[in-house]
Amino acid sequence: MCGIVGYIGNNAVEEVLLSGLKSLEYRGYDSAGIALNDNGQIDVYRAKGKLDNLSRVLNAQDFSHKHISQGIGHIRWATHGGATVENAHPHKSNDGKLVLVHNGIIENYKELREELKREGFHFFSQTDTETAVHLIDREYKVLRSLEAAVISAVSKLRGAFAFCIMHHDEPDKIIAVRKNAPLIVGLGNNENFIASDIPAIIGKAQKIVYLDDNELAIVRKDNVTVKDFNGRLINKNPEALNFAAEDISKRGYKHYMLKEINEQPDIIRNVLARRMKDAGSPVATDGLDAGQLFAGVEKIEIIACGTSLHAAMVARHVFEELTGIAVTVEAASEYIYKRVLTDEKTLCIGISQSGETADTITAVKLAKEKGAKILTVTNRIDSSIVRYADGVLPLEAGIEVSVAATKSYTAQLVSLYLLAIAVAEVRHSAAPEVLSGLKQELLELPAKMEQVLGATETIKRCAEKYCGNKSFIYIARGINLASAYEGALKLKEISYINAGGYAAGELKHGPIALLDENMPVLAVLVPGSRTYDKMISNCEEAKARHARLIAVTTEADNAHEGLFDEQIKVPAVSEILSPVLLNIPLQLLAYYTAEALGREVDQPRNLAKSVTVE
Ligand code: F6R
Fold first, then answer.
1. CA of residue 517 to ligand 1 center, whole Å
2. What is the DSSP letter of 158?
3. ∠ at Cα 589 (588, 592), nearest 5°?
4. N or C: lower Cβ tally within 10 Å for the chain?
5. Domains plus CATH for the chain?
């Protein structure tokens, strides 16, 4: 949520900032702005809406005669104050000398705002951020040092903040501050970068310094100093930046989402190659000692949000089936506001693609305080959630740019299947032939996924036929209830069509009242599964209410051809692994529906990829 960038060096500052913001657009797109230090004069440019609007503002400027040596930039996902130019960052002090961009939420901003107003500071926005500007400015006027002013001000701020700050009177530096919001420093050759996330510095910086909470970096053109909030020097080891521009390119696809959907077979192939020699060998868990982590564990709690929560729902079935350990699944935002009955016999698994989701991080911290062991499953081993972990399961799905999660979900599922198999192997909680059968089937999954991705005509046709409908109902049972939820989430978030996922057996307890000829019902089915016959009965009930029926099922499903208006089929697969394969047509259906409606697939309205506020 919100992306910030900073640059100090000899290249065209406005261009470096813009391209950095472009690669952080997934973090928000309500407004954008940059501040440039032109030989001592600070100029701020801001625009409402997407980054293109800011580009237009900048294109109208002539920078050729300017001597710009540093700048900061911001892309906003509005929290406090609407998406207006006044609320866009950077915000500046009343004398125009200090500018700041912020990601996070300052919780005590109201008290501070009143205090600063009484002292004569004028506010021009509704943001919490402007409070930080005036507070640092107030301290600066006393201390006459930006570093000292920042250190003094942060001790008065509550909440989450990553800042980039520049001051007219100290043009040799940008100060970067991190507390509960991600921030990195990229090191270049006689130039340095600051960013919320790695994509902004890929192809620009050679090395990276990860700031920890309660740290600030004084970033100059030729050196970077890191200190804690008491002003004590901290030694940081810069790490190599192991990403190339290719990692964040669209590779010829129209949208990142389509590219990421199509990357899934190879991602799974790589994960399997690293963790499993063949169906006869035990599963390796990449440095994670499954035996030790699960020793003495009597209960598993899985905590996550959104799509990751759906992966948790699948994992619950898999862990219960293979390990016999009781599993609870909870939305992180709910977990943190109840009595938490967690103890040292509990393993808490926090699943988060970004590793920066505030709710999930808070929930994991809480579980840790109660004595639970923590396992995090994340695509970003450099992320905040990892700090609280006793073990980390990396997804290695590559950078996911599209706001709608696709490849990370599939990688979460497969990683969790492998972990459950590894635990079952260590604890001898499932028959060896069951486990080797599963492993064999996992190895066959990438080729089956490719088959689905290679035959999208029916899915495209359905998308075009049904994209005019106002609502959809997705139904499933058992392990695929998560598929119904995930399919519905994907459809609503990128097409804006109202879609709800329901346990098929619940339909008759209320939602059936919604059914008529204008309500498509999409059923996720696995022929031969223990719930198949009951699913068919639920589909019959829907048909009897004139609903249009779409089946997402396997090739083995031929018994009820006449029942469905449409059938989207994937290769035959066992029930336990079916969520991986059945989800792909659901991703594609959402994608082609959004495309048919002309939606902004990669950047759906009101959303941001990394949800760093609670
Ligand atoms: C949906 C989506 C979101 C995220 C959710 C959690 O497509 O992307 O629902 O799944 O915000 O994000 P992470 O996994 O980063 O914690």
1. 33
2. -
3. 80
4. C
5. 3-248 (3.60.20.10), 256-444 (3.40.50.10490), 457-596 (3.40.50.10490)
